Amino acid sequence: MPSNGAATRTATEERLYRIGDVSRLADLKPFVLRYWETEFPMLEPIKGSSGHRLYRQEDVDMVFRIKRLLYDEGFTIAGARRFLRGHEGNFEAESTATSHAVEGKSQLLSRKMLLDLRDTLRAFLTLLERR
Fold first, then answer.
1. DSSP 80
2. Nearest residue to 63 via CA among 86, 32, 94, 95
3. Long-range contacts of 9-14 (CB under 8 A, 24+ apart)
4. Which residues, listed in sequence order, are joined to residue 17 by a DSSP beta bridge?
């Protein structure tokens, strides 16, 4: 049976990204990525024979998780590191849980805003009725 060279090559080759590629994809400066490597042990790009950092797809995914935690969700670096350690391998569930939590918070915020608006409008109505 002849072997399929393309299938074997695809199975063994992994897409690798240089730091400039990841920098552009994530819209981050390369020095930020290098700093994150020192702060997040789970972010471990491999070093090529030339010494360049090569990010696997799982590293790129981790960069986006870290960015979301730090920039969108307001975690500190230490807090994001703890969160990632506690949720290793559970990112789909984490993403769903986070979206449900955000949705719940936004509903509470909307309700509070509506109640505050109602109270303010009642106060204005009361003032207008006195005139």
1. H
2. 32
3. 14/56, 14/57
4. 55
